[in-house]
């Protein structure tokens, strides 16, 4: 008969080898999808940041031009020197303007920076023809005439973005046009500010800006600028989506590609630029190779460790009946004891069976009590904490909070478009959608925070925040926008693509009330304001005066 010690060593070793192999396969596949998704979402986020900064920059510059048109100086075209002085000051304040000129209602350049084009008529150019009608922002283009007159140390073709707006007289009729050329170089500076911090974490990143009119590359690697980019990601972005894909590019290589669409900022409608951020597949998924090596090493160590542990356990279990009697005494005293069952050894079989039955009964009772407690604190549909869990969380958290060390941000979330999905696809699909929404909310929950389903399509998201109200608002706004962006990404519900949004109202404890119900009510009121303002946004409660 095989010795107990030898048997346990072999059994433990085979079990661990089998377990590690199965876990390696399962976790390897899961980790592959998870790592790919995390990096893809990160690239999509970088693309969104770039798109947002581009639109914000263009909105700011167009606003500056529009503001200048209201000055009395521009309503006196008979004083070109004063107008030129004003334009020079504007260019000095904002160096991204390569050229600014004031045109009369016939298209003649009355005054301009560095006197370039003064006395010339540019009535046939879009910057005048469109600008005399109203605010105009043109797409990136080469300005042949200005390229010859402006400094160009690099010798490369200069590219510009046109901005123009009418100057109106006292009767409200156009008396001229204020026109400006923005150097496209500013986009490269925005690119550097976006990519530089990311290069520490993501190797091989490349960023592209693609025009809407002909899908040509406006910004990217030098050899691709001006070339068409026929990618499905560009088409998806132009349909208003933000996301990522693992796709093959024209060079035949596969890249993890994040994309975002520039749909404007506030009253600026945007030029429809698509921003792409790509990373080579081999570089992006390199952590998977390290993970596989880790599993192999961990499996080998676990096998050795548990083989040794099996030897020790066998030595102890093979002691006479006195050992099991001592274990029974320990169990009666309330200690945590593992009672094994070995059918091979008749002398301890009867006693070990009785002890195992007792332990199993106690374990099932304890497990049942634990399951009842879990069910009482969880939402049955989504698995998120419910109102009971929320109250327990607040009872445990609020009494020990020090306002000088931090706040709690309460974000009341309501899904936009959920009823339409529920009505069109049915309640079963609606329930599946709520479950997936809950998974996404819980995926970005901060340590010490809580994601709660209040009922229907309403959720409460609580997150720790800085003690300063300004910093707390900045952090919470960033987190809220991340929530909105996350829920804006499409869901696949029963093989159908579903898109929803969300509106958020936010308030802070203890700034907006001494009791949790006051904070939640304030956040709910702000949610209503977000709905009124157009949905898919966050509104903050006003900070009470000191």
Question: Can you describe what's shown?
Answer:
There is one protein chain. This protein has 546 residues and is α+β, with helices and mostly antiparallel strands. It is built from 15 helices and 18 strands. Strands 1, 2, 3, 4, 5 and 6 form a 6-stranded antiparallel β-sheet that branches. Helix 1 packs antiparallel against helix 8.
Major sheet attributes: 6 strands, antiparallel
Net shape = elongated
Count every beta strand, where a strand is a DSSP E run of 2 or more residues.
18
- Please state the structural category: alpha+beta
Number of helices: 15
> How much beta, percentage-wise?
15-25%
Average pLDDT level: 81
Detail the topology: elements first, then pairings.
Layout: H1 4-68, H2 80-93, E1 97-104, E2 109-112, H3 126-129, E3 136-137, E4 141-142, H4 144-149, E5 159-168, E6 174-183, H5 185-195, E7 206-210, E8 217-219, H6 232-238, E9 243-248, E10 254-261, E11 274-280, H7 281-284, H8 286-317, H9 321-332, H10 346-376, H11 387-397, E12 407-416, H12 418-425, H13 427-443, E13 450-455, E14 458-465, H14 469-488, E15 491-493, E16 496-498, E17 501-509, H15 516-532, E18 538-540
Parallel strand pairs: 17-18
Antiparallel strand pairs: 1-2, 1-6, 3-5, 4-5, 5-6, 7-8, 7-11, 9-10, 10-11, 12-14, 12-17, 13-14, 15-16
Helix pairs in contact: 1-5, 1-8, 12-13
């Amino acid at each position: 008969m095989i010795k107990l010690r030898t048997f346990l060593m072999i059994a433990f070793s085979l079990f661990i080898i089998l377990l590690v192999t199965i876990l390696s396969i399962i976790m390897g596949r899961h980790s592959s999808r998870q790592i790919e998704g995390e990096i893809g979402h990160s690239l999509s986020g970088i693309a969104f940041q770039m798109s947002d900064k581009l639109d914000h920059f263009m909105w700011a510059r167009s606003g500056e031009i529009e503001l200048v048109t209201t000055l009395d100086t521009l309503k006196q075209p008979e004083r070109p020197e004063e107008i030129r002085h004003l334009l020079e000051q504007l260019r000095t304040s904002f160096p991204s303007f390569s050229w600014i000129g004031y045109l009369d209602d016939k298209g003649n350049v009355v005054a301009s920076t560095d006197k370039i084009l003064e006395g010339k008529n540019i009535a046939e150019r879009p910057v005048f023809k469109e600008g005399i009608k109203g605010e105009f922002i043109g797409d990136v283009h080469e300005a042949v005439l200005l390229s010859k007159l402006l400094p160009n140390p690099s010798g490369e073709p200069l590219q510009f973005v046109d901005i123009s707006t009418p100057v109106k007289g006292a009767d409200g009729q156009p008396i001229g046009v204020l026109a400006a050329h923005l150097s496209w170089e500013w986009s490269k500076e925005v690119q550097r500010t976006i990519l530089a911090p990311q290069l520490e974490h993501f190797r091989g990143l490349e960023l592209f800006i693609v025009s809407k009119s002909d899908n040509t590359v406006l910004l990217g690697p030098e050899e691709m600028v001006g070339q068409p980019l026929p990618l499905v990601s560009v088409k998806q972005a132009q349909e208003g989506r933000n996301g990522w894909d693992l796709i093959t590019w024209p060079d035949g290589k596969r890249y993890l590609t994040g994309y975002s669409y520039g749909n404007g900022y506030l009253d600026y409608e945007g030029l429809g630029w698509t921003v792409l951020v790509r990373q080579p597949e081999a570089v992006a998924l390199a952590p998977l190779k390290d993970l596989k090596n880790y599993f192999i090493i961990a499996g080998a160590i676990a096998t050795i460790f548990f083989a040794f542990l099996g030897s020790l356990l066998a030595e102890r279990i093979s002691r006479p009946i006195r050992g099991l009697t001592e274990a029974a005494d320990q169990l009666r005293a309330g200690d945590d004891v593992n009672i094994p069952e070995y059918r091979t050894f008749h002398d301890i079989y009867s006693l070990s069976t009785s002890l195992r039955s007792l332990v199993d009964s106690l374990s099932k009772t304890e497990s049942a009590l634990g399951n009842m407690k879990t069910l009482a604190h969880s939402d049955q549909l989504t698995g998120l904490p419910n109102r009971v869990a929320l109250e327990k969380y607040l009872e445990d958290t609020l009494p020990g909070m020090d306002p000088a060390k931090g706040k709690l941000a309460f974000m009341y979330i309501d899904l936009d478009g959920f009823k339409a999905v529920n009505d069109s696809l049915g309640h079963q699909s609606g329930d599946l959608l709520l479950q997936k929404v809950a998974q996404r909310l819980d995926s970005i929950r901060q340590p010490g925070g809580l994601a709660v389903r209040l009922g229907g399509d309403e959720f409460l998201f609580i997150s720790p925040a800085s003690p300063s109200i300004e910093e707390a608002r900045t952090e919470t706004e960033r987190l809220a926008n991340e929530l909105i962006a996350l829920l804006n990404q499409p869901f696949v519900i029963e093989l159908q693509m579903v898109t929803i949004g969300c509106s958020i109202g936010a308030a802070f404890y203890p700034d907006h009330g001494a009791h949790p119900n006051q904070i939640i009510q304030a956040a709910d009121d702000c949610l209503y304001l977000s709905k009124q303002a157009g949905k898919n946004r966050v509104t903050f409660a006003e900070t009470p005066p000191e």
